[in-house]
C-alpha cells in the first residue's frame, strides 16, 4: 500500500464508512447499456472484450483518483484513506451472461448482495459486465452491445458521481476507438499517485444556526411526539438482515415519452422529480388510507455550493425531508397529495400539477442554501456507530425516498450516424437498502435521447409484494399516460 499522504476523510465520508462497517448498508449502483463498433474488438487477439474493458477502466482511473483508494483503520472511530499501490482488475470486474441484460434486474440485485470486502486489498468498487445469452448472430459491421453496472461504496461516490464514472468510462472507450493500439491485455494496474478531489467540508462552509441546534436538541432529548396520522412502515428491527438487500422492480420509458413528460413539466413550471414524488405520495395516501401524512426523503446535490463539477467523483450531497398530506384540508408545512383515486386521468388532473408545483417550490426553498442542511449536523454526531445502533426499535423517519440522478449524455444523437462511436442509451440507478431507511425507494435515471428508467427498491418483510407491484404499476401507468 502506497504510503504517500492523502487528504483527511470528511464527516460525510466517515458517516458512510461507519454505516457500512456495522453492516447497515452495502453499495450503490449505476449501470448503462453500451454500444461500441465491433471493429474495436479486433485489436486484441486474447480476450478482446475483457482487454477493452480493462484498458478503459485503467484510463478511467487516471481521471478519477478516488477509484484507487481503500480504507485504513475501518473499524476505528477515525478511519483514513489509503492509496493502493496496484490491484488486479480480474478481482473487481465480473463478466456474466443474461437473457436480457438491458431490461433484467436480477443480476443487479445480485450485485447488491456482493459485499465490498477485502478492505485494504481491493478498491471500493466492483463492475459487472452483462452480455446477452445466447449471443445474437451479427455481421462483422454491426455494432456490439453490452450492459455494465458500477457498484461502489457510498463513501467514494454519490449517485451523480456513479453517473460520472460512466461518462468518464465512455470517454475512455472513445479514446480506444481513436487509438486502438493502446488496447493491451494488462489486468494488473498500478494506481496513479494523484491527489484526491477535495471533500465537501474542504470546499463548502456548512453553517448551523443556534435556532436549528436548539430545535434538534429539543427533538432529540426533550420532546418529540409521534404523529398518529403519519405512516412510515414498521419500526426499525434489530432482527432485520444486515445489510438489507433490495428487491428491485423496474420499467423504462422511451425517449419520445420522456421528452413529452419533460415538456409538460416545464409548461406546468415543475420538474420530473417533483411529479414522481407527488405520484408516489398520492399512491401512499390511497394505499395506506388509515394514515394521512407521509414524509419523503429527497437527496439533492450540493455541487452548486461546493463548486465540484458534474465529472468529480465523491460525496457532495445532502437530503431533505418533505412532508405530504392526503387530508382534504392540508395542514401548514405539508404539500397536498389528496386524490380520490390512485389512477386518475393525469392529463386532465389540474390538482396534480398544482401539487407538483407546490412540491417543486418546497424543494427549491429547502435546497436554496447550504445552511442548516442535514449534512451540516454530522460534525456534532459524536459516536457514529452508536448513533446507528440506537435506532433499533424506533419509528422510521421516512415513508419513501425519491432519488433522481438526472440525465446522462451517452453520446446518442437521434437522426445521425453513431456507428463509429461508443454510446449508451439506457441507464439504471439503485442502491442497497439502509437498515433504518424508507420502506419504499424510487430511483430515476435518464440517458439523453434514450430511455428513462424508474426503479423501485423494497425489502421483504417491510412491505408486501402486492403493495410494491401496485406502486410500480401505478407509476408506470401514470407516466406512460403523460408520455403517450
UniProtKB/TrEMBL annotation:
InterPro entries with a match to the protein in the record: Alcohol_O-acetyltransferase (IPR052058), Atf2/Sli1-like (IPR010828)
GO molecular function terms noted in the UniProt entry: N-acetyltransferase activity
UniProt xrefs under Pfam families: AATase
UniProt signal peptide: none
UniProt superkingdom: Eukaryota
Stored PANTHER family: ALCOHOL O-ACETYLTRANSFERASE 1-RELATED
The name this protein goes by in its record: Alcohol acetyltransferase
Species: Hyaloscypha variabilis (strain UAMH 11265 / GT02V1 / F) (Meliniomyces variabilis)
Organism lineage string: Eukaryota, Fungi, Dikarya, Ascomycota, Pezizomycotina
Amino acid at each position: 500500500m502506497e504510503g504517500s499522504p492523502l487528504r483527511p476523510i470528511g464527516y460525510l465520508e466517515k458517516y458512510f464508512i461507519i454505516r457500512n462497517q456495522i453492516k447497515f448498508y452495502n453499495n450503490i449502483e449505476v449501470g448503462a447499456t453500451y454500444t461500441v463498433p465491433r471493429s474495436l474488438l479486433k485489436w486484441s487477439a486474447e480476450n478482446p472484450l475483457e482487454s477493452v474493458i480493462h484498458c478503459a477502466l485503467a484510463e478511467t482511473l487516471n481521471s478519477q483518483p478516488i477509484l484507487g483508494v481503500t480504507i485504513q483503520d475501518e473499524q476505528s472511530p477515525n478511519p483514513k484513506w489509503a492509496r493502493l499501490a496496484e490491484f488486479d482488475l480480474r478481482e473487481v470486474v465480473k463478466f456474466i451472461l443474461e437473457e436480457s441484460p438491458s431490461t433484467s434486474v436480477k443480476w443487479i440485485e445480485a450485485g447488491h448482495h456482493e459485499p465490498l470486502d477485502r478492505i485494504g486489498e481491493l478498491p471500493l468498487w466492483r463492475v459487472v459486465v452483462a452480455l446477452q445469452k445466447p449471443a445474437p448472430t451479427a455481421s462483422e459491421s454491426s455494432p456490439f452491445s453490452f450492459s455494465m453496472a458500477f457498484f461502489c461504496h457510498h463513501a467514494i461516490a454519490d449517485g451523480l458521481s456513479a453517473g460520472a464514472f460512466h461518462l468518464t468510462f465512455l470517454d475512455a472507450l472513445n479514446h480506444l476507438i481513436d487509438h486502438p493500439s493502446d488496447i493491451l491485455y494488462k489486468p494488473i494496474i498500478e494506481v496513479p499517485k494523484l491527489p484526491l478531489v477535495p471533500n465537501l467540508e474542504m470546499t463548502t462552509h456548512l453553517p448551523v444556526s443556534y435556532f436549528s441546534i436548539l430545535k434538534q436538541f429539543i427533538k432529540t432529548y426533550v420532546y418529540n411526539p409521534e404523529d398518529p396520522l403519519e405512516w412510515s412502515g414498521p419500526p426499525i428491527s434489530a432482527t432485520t438482515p444486515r445489510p438489507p438487500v433490495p428487491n428491485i422492480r423496474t420499467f423504462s420509458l422511451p425517449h419520445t415519452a420522456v421528452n413529452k413528460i419533460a415538456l409538460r413539466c416545464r409548461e406546468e413550471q415543475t420538474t420530473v422529480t417533483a411529479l414522481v414524488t407527488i405520484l408516489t405520495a398520492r399512491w401512499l395516501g390511497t394505499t395506506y388510507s388509515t394514515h394521512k401524512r407521509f414524509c419523503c426523503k429527497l437527496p439533492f446535490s450540493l455541487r452548486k455550493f461546493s463548486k465540484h463539477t458534474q465529472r468529480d467523483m465523491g460525496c457532495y450531497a445532502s437530503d431533505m425531508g418533505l412532508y405530504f398530506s392526503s387530508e382534504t384540508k392540508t395542514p401548514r408545512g405539508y404539500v397536498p397529495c389528496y386524490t380520490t383515486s390512485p389512477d386518475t386521468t393525469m392529463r386532465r388532473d389540474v390538482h396534480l400539477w398544482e401539487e407538483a408545483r407546490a412540491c417543486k417550490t418546497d424543494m427549491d426553498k429547502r435546497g436554496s442554501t447550504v445552511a442548516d442542511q442535514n449534512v451540516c449536523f454530522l460534525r456534532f454526531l459524536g459516536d457514529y456507530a452508536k448513533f446507528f445502533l440506537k435506532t433499533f426499535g424506533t419509528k422510521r423517519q421516512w415513508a419513501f425516498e425519491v432519488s433522481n440522478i438526472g440525465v446522462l449524455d451517452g453520446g446518442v444523437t437521434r437522426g445521425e450516424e453513431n456507428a463509429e462511436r461508443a454510446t449508451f442509451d439506457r441507464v439504471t440507478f439503485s442502491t442497497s437498502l439502509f437498515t433504518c431507511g424508507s420502506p419504499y425507494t424510487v430511483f430515476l435515471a435518464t440517458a439523453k435521447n434514450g430511455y428513462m428508467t424508474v426503479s423501485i427498491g423494497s425489502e421483504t418483510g417491510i412491505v408486501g409484494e402486492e403493495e410494491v407491484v401496485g406502486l410500480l404499476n401505478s407509476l408506470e401507468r401514470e407516466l406512460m399516460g403523460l408520455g403517450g
